[in-house]
Every structure is written in C-alpha cells, then in structure tokens.
C-alpha cells in the first residue's frame, strides 16, 4: 500500500455509508465522498473523510478530471439510474487512468457498482433486465481496455443484500401477523447468495488493504449461500412455528409476469430463478480470510425471534 492512499467513494447511500467505517480505519488513507449535493452529507465528515460535489451524469471531461485525483474509485452510486450510467462511469475512469499515466501517477484502481450477481452468467436475463446486460458489457470493457488505460479493477460479486431477501415486497419471506410464508424461486433446491452490506464493506477493506489478490479480476463474497429449502427450514426452526411453503416455478413466474409485463420485481424474480445468482462460500474472500460474517440464520434470528 502506498504511504498516502486517496479513495474516492462515489455515493453515500446504503452501501457507501456501510463502507465508510471499514475504509476509514485503513492506515494512511484519506476518503473523499462524492455526491451530487454535498451539503446533505455534512454529518459524515471526519478526520480523514471529506466531501465534494460531483454529478456523474455531468460532462465526461469534468468527471474524468476529478476521478484522476484519486488512487482508488469505489462506486456506490446506486442502481436506479438511467441506462448508460454505469458504462459512462467506466469510460470516465478509463480516461482518468490515461490522465494519471501522462502525469506519471499510479493506475486508478476501480471498483464498479457490481455489488450483485454474476452478470457474465445472467446476461440481460433473456431481455428482461437490460441493466444486467449493461453490467456484463462494463466487465467486457474493463477486461479489454483497462490495462492500456492505466486502470486496475476489481469486481466484488456479493449476491443480493441480506436485507433484500427479507423485504416483504420481494415476496420470498413474507410475514403476516403470526404466519410466515417462505417461497422458492424455481425450486426448493435452487439457491441464492446473500451478503449483509456491512460485511461487503469489511470484504472491500481487506481487498484494498491487499490481504487478498483482487486486482483485474472478479472476486466473490457471501454471507451465506442457501437453498430455498434451507431458508424455510432455518426460519421454521427460529420461529418454532409452522412455515407455509410455496414453490414459484419458472412457469408460474412467467405467467405472473405476463399479467404485469412492466413489473420490475416480477422480472427480477424470473432472473433470480435462473443461473448466476449463487456461488459456493468456499470461493469467497470472506471464507479464504476466515472473516466472521452475518449468515441467513443470524439475520433471521435478529429479525424474527
Ligand atoms: N445486490 C443487491 O441486492 C442489489 C441489486 C440491485 C439494487 N440494489 C439496491 O441498491 C441500493 C443500494 O446501493 P447504493 O448504496 O449504491 O445506492 P443508494 O442507497 O441509492 O445511494 C446512492 C448514492 O449515490 C449518490 N448518487 C446518485 N446519483 C449520483 C450521481 N449522478 N452523481 C453522484 N452521486 C450520485 C446519491 O447521492 P445524491 O443523490 O445526494 O447525489 C447517494 O448517496 C439499494 O436501493 C438496493 O436495494 C441492490
């Protein structure tokens, strides 16, 4: 690690704020948070944390010039942005890398917003999720152009956020008065990888610290990887009550989507009934570094008991 490392954290929402405590305790590191309206985030300013205003949708020349001031760029700027946003950021980072090369500085180390599933496998979900398809193209862009642009990159695949698995609107763990319904996407044997956002922050900090080789590759994290049968069993055990089980097959999910073709959650469910949404825990950075992380059982116990 260089003696003074400058990290730009783009975005300070759910992920950015979960990352801050872990990044800010790294030695010899200063963190700059970039958001559109800096004044909304003054409470986050600390000894080694400052804030600037930056709009990623602004002119690429301005964004790249700003990014070039940092050794590491971590994107936490959300997922709900217009098409093309994640590609534009990747292109602006490539330009920033070129500027740093000309100035005789070290490469930019880029962590794109890929805190999710394995987009190489999901692709665009058969046309259902253009954004997932764009994420795969960002991977291809980095694989093809990062090296010549003086950019290092790390993609951290995390699965869905732990909290998301238990959201009522997701429809997988549904609580109604004293009754809980657990639903399986595709089948009871199908699996899902989930990671708590604080644990993603812990994994990120260990990668940045160089405790695991992360540059120019995709690495994996997992708080847990569970089958839907295991999820239902765990919840039944914790609540000591009967859990209703309902299997949402691919045919059922397709029928449901046909009723509301624009329903994003229904599209998501179909994509999550497919491949690329789970991996074995022994592949993960947290497993290799023997890091304690929150499991589905831990989370369910806190939420439901
Ligand atoms: N793996 C998963 O489970 C998964 C998958 C897909 C989506 N999600 C969703 O992802 C979200 C969490 O991700 P997150 O923390 O990255 O997003 P977030 O909570 O929506 O926060 C986004 C941050 O980026 C800033 N920002 C937004 N647009 C910007 C721009 N053009 N320029 C500069 N800054 C910008 C926002 O600040 P300002 O608005 O103040 O600028 C905010 O601080 C959750 O809503 C989660 O449900 C999760």
Automatic annotation (TrEMBL):
Lineage: Eukaryota, Fungi, Dikarya, Ascomycota, Pezizomycotina
Name the record gives this protein: NAD(P)-binding protein
Residues in NmrA-like domain copies: 4-255
Signal peptide residues on this chain, from the entry's feature table: none
Molecular function terms, GO-annotated: oxidoreductase activity
InterPro entries in the record: NAD(P)-bd_dom_sf, NmrA-like, NmrA/Isoflavone_reductase-like
SUPFAM superfamilies for this protein: NAD(P)-binding Rossmann-fold domains (SSF51735)
Keywords: NADP, Oxidoreductase
PANTHER family per record: NMRA-LIKE FAMILY PROTEIN, NMRA-LIKE FAMILY PROTEIN (AFU_ORTHOLOGUE AFUA_6G00280)
Presence of the UniProt keyword Endoplasmic reticulum in the record: no
Keyword Methyltransferase: no
């Amino acid at each position: 690690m260089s003696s003074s490392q400058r990290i730009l954290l783009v975005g300070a929402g759910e992920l950015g704020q979960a990352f801050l405590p872990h990044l800010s305790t790294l030695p010899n590191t200063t963190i700059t948070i970039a958001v559109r309206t800096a004044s909304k985030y003054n409470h986050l300013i600390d000894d080694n944390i400052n804030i600037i205003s930056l709009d990623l949708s602004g002119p690429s020349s301005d964004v790249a010039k700003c990014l070039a001031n940092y050794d590491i760029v971590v994107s936490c700027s959300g997922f709900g942005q217009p098409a093309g946003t994640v590609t534009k950021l990747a292109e602006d980072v490539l330009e920033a890398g070129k500027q740093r090369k000309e100035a005789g500085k070290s490469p930019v180390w880029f962590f794109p917003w890929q805190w999710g599933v394995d987009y190489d496998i999901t692709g665009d979900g058969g046309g259902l999720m253009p954004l997932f398809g764009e994420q795969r193209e960002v991977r291809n862009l980095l694989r093809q152009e990062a090296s010549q642009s003086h950019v290092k990159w790390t993609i951290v695949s995390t699965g869905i956020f732990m909290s998301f698995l238990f959201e009522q609107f997701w429809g997988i763990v549904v609580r109604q008065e004293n009754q809980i319904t657990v639903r399986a996407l595709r089948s009871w044997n199908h699996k899902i990888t989930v990671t708590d956002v604080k644990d993603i922050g812990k994994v990120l900090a260990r990668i940045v610290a160089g405790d695991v080789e992360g540059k120019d590759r995709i690495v994996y994290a997992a708080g847990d990887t569970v089958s839907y049968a295991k999820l239902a069993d765990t919840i039944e055990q914790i609540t000591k009550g009967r859990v209703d089980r309902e299997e949402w097959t691919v045919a059922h999910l397709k029928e449901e989507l046909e009723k509301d073709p624009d329903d994003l959650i229904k599209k998501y469910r179909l994509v999550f009934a497919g491949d690329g949404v789970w991996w074995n825990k022994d592949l993960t950075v947290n497993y290799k570094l023997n890091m304690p992380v929150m499991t589905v059982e831990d989370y369910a116990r806190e939420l439901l008991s």
